[in-house]
Amino acid sequence: MKEFLFTKEDYAGFCENKESLVQQWAYKQLIKFYPNSETTYKYTKKFIQPKMIKKIERMKYLIMTYLRENWKLIDSDFLFGLVEGKTEISFEMQAHILRALAQKGKQKNKIVNLLLQIDGRQTNVNTFLVVIEALEILQTDEAYAMLRYFDKDLSSPFPFMESYMNALISYKDEKDINLILETLTKKQEKFDQEKVISEFNTLFKAEEFSNLFMNFWQQQPLEDSLETLKYYYPQNKGVERLNSFLGAELCSLHQNNQYFDFIFRLAEKIMAELNQRYNFSEKLELDNFDLEFLNKEKEKLREEDYWLLYLLNFILDNKKTIQQHFSVRFFSLELVVMLLVVLEDNNYQKMIRKSKEDQDYLWQQITLDRENLPAALVELFLESGDVFEDRIIKHLKNNRYAASISRMLEYLIEINSVKAVPTIIELVDEKQSDLVCEDAVKALEKIDGYSFETLTAGLEAGDSTTHIFVSSGLEQFATNQAAGKTIEYWENGILDFHEMFVLTLQEIGSKVGYDYLVVEEIQNLPEYLLETLIILGTIHGEEKDRLEVYKAELTDQKAARKDNGLFDFFNQSAGGDFNSADENDEYSRNNEGTIIRTEEKVGRNDPCPCGSGKKYKKCCGR
């Protein structure tokens, strides 16, 4: 641990301060620097109680983030103690704790029993979604039984039904698959059919391509989509072969809206490829392709190929329904995704089996031009120790925009690779995607032991994107030196966003930062600056009268903001039995069923209140 201005005991003392902003700040430092310490557990237990969450602004989101991002580090017994003991916590927070335990993968039946104790009649939609997510992670018979108990025939009125369907799809029960597809065709007005169909791509490891076409492909011509694919996956074998197959003639069919002709041509190609892959008892062709054929040949098929053909059969058998109730263009692009993964020809079961025996083979598979690989394969990679460290650093230097970057960074976090830090910083620039930049910064936050000079040298050598993202690394150094450097960067224009500058100083916690921010005239100062002055002034012993002036101005500004009615940001329809018993003053429903914020502000990096699991800035805060 680096030499900081404050010790763990200092932060614990600040957690006892009467000022709620200081308590919130101190707890955030504990979960950042000491995520698995007894001191952090002590204050988590204190702050997780509803009366404390209601009192302290944003504390709920700090705890939710802590559980979501640090579940590997947090002690299982501590988490079980929270939901089994006498600590009074809300149903929503119980759900988040049990989700973290589900990810840890131990005592799964015990987790299900505890999930059963969450009263569905007294939970909000957000809580329900987290419960569904936990049940999807568990993948046990008991978890499945609880999941199916919620809705036997997909007729419940609760919102976000697509999330429930997606959880069911993950269990790969054919009765559920049939029911979902049938429901989509008969009650198409109730669901986002395209979103649910896209979830089927997880069954044959094509979700990342599906995400691409959901974001880009439906808004651009097929030829441009192929260029997008080549840009994102320059070394992917399936992309290369797909580009060769989809020549001018097929692109012309698609351009002229002859989608079913296009679909049949791609279906024939998929079947031809699989006929070469398998020795079927009779050749697979459009004329004989049905579920009877599929079930007869099931034992020969890889699991991914079976589910791909299962969905293909649905598309081909429901031409009339698709024409009437779905987007045929959407399904034409779905066939592109299917063909891509068939041409890619990844045998995941073989990959996992051979990777257990041969590290060089594991390296070949883990560097495939793919963002998503089977969890079992990635786990083998993460558990392999530091044998790949040098290879990964070299790989990142030579493949700065590779699809494999995320899991490479995860590995470097796992082994706490200090020597990889300069390379990680170099990943962040204006040509890089925001997602990679965020993953790189997350790695910088998690890796401990690198020098302050390493961080600042990389930051100063970078461009404006580097400055925006990597400057958050300054927050990992709670030192006067870091505060002084932050001020220098502000004055020299390396940091040019005032809120980011102030909040960086707040995170560092130095009196150097406080002294720089202090001004005589406080009227109309931004709220974030007033809050920072209160926090830093309190922990560094500012006179009480001066602190009261800051607090009064902050109270006046919040009151004015509330009067302006700027809090309606989150729309969601009311959902049956999901009432507001678990909601506090932070959110309430108006007469139309819309959830509105009535008190506190959600931070951009906090979990989104909609329950999606994404950060607010990546979801409802866009």
Helix content: 55-70%
Kindly report the average pLDDT value: 88
- Biggest sheet architecture: 2 strands, antiparallel
Q: Tally the helices: what do you get?
A: 36
* CATH fold descriptor of the domain at 8-204: Leucine-rich Repeat Variant
Strand order, sheet with most strands: 1-2
What is the general shape?
Answer: globular
* CATH architecture heading of the domain at 8-204: Alpha Horseshoe
**Would you tell me the structural class of the helices and strands?**
mainly alpha
The number of strands is: 2
Q: Termini separation (Å)?
A: 35 Å
Query: Which class of the domain at 8-204 in CATH terms?
Result: Mainly Alpha
Contiguous uncertain segments of 5+ residues: 566-601
Strand proportion, as a percent range, falls in: under 5%
Description of the molecule:
The chain has 622 residues and is mainly α. The chain has helices spanning 8-15, 20-33, 38-47, 50-55, 59-69, 76-84, 91-104, 108-116, 125-138, 141-150, 161-170, 174-186, 193-199, 207-215, 222-232, 237-245, 248-255, 259-277, 291-296, 303-317, 319-325, 328-344, 348-355, 359-366, 375-382, 389-398, 405-414, 421-426, 434-446, 452-461, 464-470, 480-491, 498-508, 511-517, 527-539, 544-563, and strands spanning 587-589, 595-597. Strands 1-2 form a two-stranded antiparallel sheet. α6 packs antiparallel against α7 (91-104) and α32 (480-491) runs parallel beside α34. The model is unreliable at 566-601 (pLDDT under 50).
